[in-house]
Specification:
8 helices, rod-shaped
């Protein structure tokens, strides 16, 4: 017990010969030393876990945790050991303020990795959601490069098809008018194959000739544009399939997940 007490007193930074003259303060400095020691231990676990989430290496995590714990131990010991009391409230507060700020920063740095470990299961579940959001964003970026070209070709195909459909409609109407003129169900309402029928039949034949010319000109363009659309879709699908799907679980991602939770 004496060895542990001496170790804790050494941790507190107290001057042992001076303390021997004030034995009533021994328990206070033992408590201060224990606080500094446990802070360093927590810093070790915190730093080790933080580095492990980055590199997935136990050895590197332990080594970094030891260095981090010793640094926090030395810094915390300095903060406690360098405190002086002047007997004036404002002077004492001025001395304590930078140490209070440093202590708050240390508390945040030490507690954050431990907080991540405490909420590890919830964070892992949230990381899956965030990962899907990242993948969806990547896919949307790829699609945004191809979609305007695809839509342009599709709109051009639709315009050509509309023009063909209009010609077909006009041709069919003229043919129907010629037929109705021939059987007496329309036009002059007299059944005959006279000049009126021949004129209407000529108009229908002319419309059919124009339709055939339009189809012969537009159909290759439609087929070419549809092939281009299929080619763009295939390229877009390949780019999406080749997206880098790296694991999403680094320190920054875990902190972001914790803030979302």
């Amino acid at each position: 017990m004496s060895t542990l007490k001496n170790f804790l007193l050494q941790c507190s930074g107290v001057d042992l010969p001076t303390l021997e003259k004030c034995p009533s303060d021994e328990n206070k400095y033992v408590g201060i030393g224990a606080t500094i020691m446990f802070t360093a231990i927590l810093a070790f676990f915190s730093g080790a876990y933080a580095l492990y989430t980055v590199f997935d290496s136990v050895i590197a995590a332990v080594l970094f945790g030891m260095v981090w714990g010793l640094m926090i131990f030395n810094l915390d010991r300095y903060i406690v050991g360098s405190m002086k009391k002047y007997g004036n409230g404002w002077s004492d507060f001025g001395v304590a303020l930078p140490r209070i700020i440093m202590a708050i920063l240390l508390a945040i740095v030490i507690s954050k990795p431990l907080e991540l470990k405490v909420f590890e299961k919830e964070i892992n579940a949230e990381l899956l959601v965030m990962e899907q959001e990242v993948f969806k964003t990547q896919e949307d970026r790829v699609m945004s490069r191809y979609q305007p070209m695809i839509e342009q070709h599709q709109s051009e195909v639709a315009a050509l098809q509309i023009e063909i459909d209009e010609k077909i409609k006009t041709r069919d109407q003229l043919e129907m008018m010629a037929i109705q003129e021939a059987d007496g169900t329309g036009g002059s309402m007299q059944r005959n194959l006279g000049p009126i029928y021949r004129a209407k039949k000529q108009e229908a034949d002319q419309a059919n000739t124009e339709l055939e010319g339009l189809v012969s000109l537009s159909q290759p363009m439609i087929e070419s544009k549809m092939k281009e659309v299929e080619s763009l879709r295939a390229a877009m699908k390949d780019d999406i399939a080749n997206l880098e799907r790296t694991a999403y679980g680094g320190m920054a991602a875990r902190m972001d997940a914790l803030s979302r939770l």
